[in-house]
Automatic annotation (TrEMBL):
It comes from Dorcoceras hygrometricum. Its EC number is 2.7.4.6. Transmembrane segments: none annotated. GO terms for molecular function: ATP binding; nucleoside diphosphate kinase activity. GO terms for biological process: CTP biosynthetic process; GTP biosynthetic process; response to hydrogen peroxide; UTP biosynthetic process. This is Nucleoside diphosphate kinase. Its cofactor is Mg(2+). It comes from the Eukaryota. Keywords: ATP-binding, Kinase, Nucleotide-binding, Transferase. The active site is at H122 (pros-phosphohistidine intermediate). It catalyses: a ribonucleoside 5'-diphosphate + ATP = a ribonucleoside 5'-triphosphate + ADP; a 2'-deoxyribonucleoside 5'-diphosphate + ATP = a 2'-deoxyribonucleoside 5'-triphosphate + ADP. Belongs to the NDK family. Residues 8-145 form the Nucleoside diphosphate kinase-like domain. ATP binds at K16, F64, R92, T98, R109, N119.
């Protein structure tokens, strides 16, 4: 169980292949943007098997592990790094619980998914894993540290 933190954190969010195939990329990115988090990395990427295995290495003894690796490598994913106060736990709340049938309406999985094995999005479960996963999925030059400026963009 994650408690909201007051620290600026970073988290790795990934739109899984079903989210890309179903045309949900804009919808999902939009939820994190509207919440107020800051995007620091973004790419469409065909994940090699070894990377999927490394990312989910804590689950390698689970019976569903081979299927999980097949799923994650079945088509392109959208890799994202997001930064913000309490972003790790907050992103998990926006995403909803693992089984979409139990996920609250209003969450990404609660609104957009049905099956645990097709739950459209991943989010890091701790600040440590946020850092680990961003380092795993992005090369240094692919991340962008930027300061939002206060401009009257729409004037
Ligand atoms: P994620 O890492 O993708 O954000 O998901 P999570 O923390 O909510 O869930 P976790 O337990 O870490 O499982 C990772 C992913 O494995 C797939 N899964 N399949 N019984 C099953 O068939 C099963 N259980 C888990 C899901 O795609 C889950 O998101």
């Amino acid at each position: 169980h994650l408690v909201a933190s007051l620290e600026v954190e970073e988290t790795y969010i990934m739109i899984k292949p079903d989210g890309v195939q179903r045309g949900l990329v804009g919808e999902i990115i939009s939820r994190f943007e509207r919440k107020g988090f800051q995007l620091t990395g973004l790419k469409l990427f065909q994940c090699p098997k070894e990377l999927a295995q490394e990312h989910y290495k804590d689950l390698q003894s689970k019976p569903f592990f081979p299927k999980l690796v097949d799923y994650i490598t079945s088509g392109p994913v959208v890799c994202m790094a997001w930064e913000g106060v309490g972003v790790v736990a907050s992103a998990r709340k926006l995403i909803g619980v693992t089984n979409p049938l139990n996920a609250e309406p209003g969450t990404i999985r609660g609104d957009l998914a049905v099956q645990t094995g097709r739950n459209v999005v991943h989010g890091s479960d701790s600040p440590e894993n946020g850092k680990r996963e961003i380092a795993l999925w992005f090369k240094e030059g692919e991340l962008c540290e930027w300061t939002p400026v206060q401009e009257p963009w729409l004037k």
